[in-house]
Amino acid sequence: MVExxxxxxIELRFLDGIExxxxxxxxxxxxxxxxxxxxxxxxxxEEIAKKHGATVVKFGGLPSKLPRPLAEIxxxxxxxxxxxxxxxxxxxxxxxxxxxxxxxxxxxxAHGPYQIFIATQEDGIQILYEYLGLKYVPPTPPxxxxxxxxxxxxAAAKPVLPAPRPTAQPKPAVPTPATPPKPEQSAPKPAAQx
Length: 194
Description:
alpha+beta, 6-stranded antiparallel β-sheet, 6 strands, 25% helix, 19% strand
């Protein structure tokens, strides 16, 4: 899978020899297209691909020989596929029009005599950058998601407690000096009558 499309579009857009750079999304994967305004040096691409453990396989030899109206129906213009797994059987089926899995493709431009380099994986981008003489910088990994935090409770949802009312505190008792208890005075007895 090709990543970091915006950075690559900016890096390649105004280079000499490049007519157009596009990010093309498909249901089965995204592709990075670079349309050149001159023919590609296939020997140089083969050497670079070999250095990266890939092989350039000719594709669509038989369908491309058919009459143009029929060829356009059966063949999408891809002339070469850069594949990491290309044996003898793969080369035979590719010449018959069965496209092998690859890291990049080279197609003939339907609107002119030039070619389009189509990268389908990062290895294809790396081959393209080396072909153009640019330093390949791998895509930056996406930032790790932060640990989820507890959402703050909205102020309206917090229960509002009434403010505590100040309570009247009893005044401290003033200590009185200790006085001895008075004996109980009894009421005067009436005098006895004689």
